[in-house]
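Technical note accompanying the year-one report. For the benefit of new consortium partners, we illustrate the data format agreed upon in the data management plan: each record pairs a sequence with a structure-token string. No post-processing was applied to the example shown here.
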Amino acid sequence: MLLNVQGGFKHNAKAKKLKYHDITTSCSLVWNVQPPAPLTNLTAVCSTPTLVTSGEFVGATDGCACLDAQVGNLVSNVVAVAVGAGTCSPDFCATPTGTPTP
């Protein structure tokens, strides 16, 4: 599956207009996957080994995983991903998996 991270962003707090950005390949972007077992990230765009930024995932084992994207203190909505024949319970991803920084 291929995921993208796109949104409207302000350059500063006083800005009146949102500017559209696709930050899918940003080296500041981190994909948070919990638990990591059902999904495997296919490629990393950045050279830093701790950053997984491609947004390309493949199902590795049956199960459910919670997935979100994080840039600094901005964390996306959480998406539940079911791999295999099963389904994820509605409350499987009750909270974001990332740890926002102030």
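Partners are asked to follow this layout when depositing records. The chain has a mean pLDDT of 79.
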